[in-house]
Amino acid sequence: MDIQSLRREIHSLKMQGLASATLASRLHDLVHAFMLHPSLAQLMPELQSKGLYQRYRLSDPRDDFHIILVAWAPGQTSPIHDHHDIIGAVATLQGQVIETRFRRDISMGPLCKLEPTAQYELSPLSVSQILPGKEMQLHQMTNAGQQWAATLHVYLERLEQFQIYRPWVKPWYMVRPQTLWFDEDTQYSEPYNQVVATLPFGNAKGEREVSRL
Ligand SMILES: [Fe+2]
What we know:
Layout: H1 3-14, H2 20-35, H3 38-50, E1 54-57, E2 66-72, E3 80-81, E4 88-94, E5 97-108, E6 111-122, E7 127-130, E8 138-143, E9 149-155, E10 162-167, E11 172-178, E12 198-203, E13 206-212
Antiparallel strand pairs: 1-2, 1-13, 2-9, 3-10, 4-7, 4-9, 5-6, 5-8, 6-11, 10-11, 12-13
Helix pairs in contact: 1-2
């Protein structure tokens, strides 16, 4: 399945009025099919050659959902974050990625306590689901390997508002709203706006520009 087919399928999926669990399951299958497309493998060397943490929007800016590809240098990690109760799927395309899930416990104003609930190694071609609910929304991702990793993030809504959770005085975390997803991660790379990457992304009709979020 190429990127245009994936976009069409997501548009169609969203029109069907399915329950959350069914939606998440169908999305899982679509993401898995898309991961097998050879154009993604062609993209990997291009990403690594840039030498930076990068995010690429593969969906069209007019789409009412997000398909995003992230490249991770060895050891890079995301902040702990939620996903605005949006249904999504996260997949590892390459590398050794660890996902840690958290549950939000006690809240006190902008502070809260978090409890780690699970940790998974997302092996290549595996897909992890993001579901509404307090135990399925919060996570942190880390490239635990010595090589570059790449992950694919598909959300059934545009993930433009979410929250990150920064360590505060133990055991508290400070909750901060964000208007752009994963924006905080760019602290690990060059200033966000200085890099405008365009990469060829092959599909059945030719090439498509991939723009950085
Ligand atoms: Fe995430």
